[in-house]
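Researcher: Here's the sequence for the chain we discussed earlier.
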Amino acid sequence: MEQNQLKELYVDELRDIYNAENQLVKALPKMAKAATSEELRSGFEEHWEQTKGHVQRLEQIFRALGEKPSGKKCKGIEGLIGEGKEMMEEDLDGEALDAGLISAAQRVEHYEIAAYGCVRTYGNILGEKEAVSLLEETLEEEKETDQKLTELAERINVEAAGSDSENEDGEEKANRRSPQPVASRRGKSKAARA
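Model: Thanks. This is the structure I predict for it:
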């Protein structure tokens, strides 16, 4: 592939991500409002603020390239946001709704991680050092958000399973609702790797 074709792909993919981030700026407050867990709501609100920063970083990259950020619709994120909207319209309550929202949010995060990883690589090849630094910063934030969602899911999914089992005796249910603290799990997984 010639370098100018890679640059065209790079700019096109940046436009796709820019549109995706702008769609998320609109969707995240709705997800926060739908969340029943205060921790999940707060996480969505925090990521909404980060996402506005992602948009600003992309605008900075476009200015440096002398390109306009508009002109592309991200159908991938549009579909993922649509799935999240369907989740909010389901007849789910409490922890089950939160578990579904986490699932929808993680799909978005994985899409973004892949997208940012690709454009960062293109930028690296094209010698766009400042852009690569900005893209790397966003990529790390997306990975951190995904990790936070995973940690929340470990607790909320168990709670959702517990709330579905009303016939269980109280002690068994209480045990299922008390997963091991995240710090302890991390320590064990590090020890297992050593």
